[in-house]
Design brief:
Length: 213
């Protein structure tokens, strides 16, 4: 059926089913369309915060230690589809609309949550499952990072400590257009200096405030 032949109002009347069911059905079809556009799904690396994408957007990375399924109320849930939804939406908003990572991340999270709810899964249960496998700064499991992992999310989050830990596993393939490894190293050093100054000023302010009491 042509896409233009499925008007949302007429479809609801014809099918005689609740709006939420039609919305869930269309969301599922949208997810299928996204899955067909994924060129490569890689599960062989360590990925901070569970999932990410390559600079060129051709590869979606899912952490190698994340189980493929979540056992949920007698069902086996394929968690990859939700992460793929999140990463594809986020990457598209950043590259095509020029959104800041934090803004794109918020929208992508809403899309991910909508898909989860459409599959009759409680967000808190899904999030609890995922949090058990998240790798962050200082995690000893963070050893095998893909060399072309897009670093923009970590830069926009000012997570330069994490970038420092990943640098041994990253090459120029992980840099965006116009960037160099030297520029990345310089940015890390500048951020560290600024952070130290900020912490020093905060400590001085705290001591000054305490002396006035």
């Amino acid at each position: 059926m042509p896409a233009c032949g499925c008007h949302p109002i007429s479809a609801h009347k014809k099918l005689r089913i609740p709006d939420w069911y039609v919305s869930s059905l269309m969301l599922d079809r949208a997810m299928d369309a996204i899955l067909r556009r994924v060129r490569k799904l890689d599960r062989t690396h360590d990925i901070p915060y569970l999932a990410g994408y390559s600079v060129d957007g051709q590869t979606i990375y899912i952490d190698r230690h994340l189980p493929r399924v979540m056992n949920y109320k007698g069902r086996k849930i394929d968690v990859a589809r939700y992460l793929i939804m999140h990463e594809e939406v986020e990457k598209t908003l950043i590259d095509q609309l020029g959104l800041h990572y934090l803004h794109a991340h918020q929208i992508a999270t809403r899309a991910e949550e909508a898909l989860i709810r459409a599959d009759n899964i409680l967000w808190r249960d899904y999030d609890r499952f995922m949090q058990k496998y998240v790798k962050i700064l200082g995690d000893e499991r963070l050893k095998k990072v893909p060399e072309d992992l897009d670093l923009k999310p970590y830069r926009d989050e000012h997570d330069f400590d994490l970038i420092q830990r990943m640098r041994k596993s990253l090459t120029t393939k992980g840099l965006r257009k116009g960037e160099t490894a030297a520029a990345l190293a310089k940015a890390v050093r500048e951020y560290e200096t600024a952070l130290k100054d900020q912490r020093r000023d905060a400590a001085a302010h705290k001591r000054k405030a305490a002396s006035r009491k």
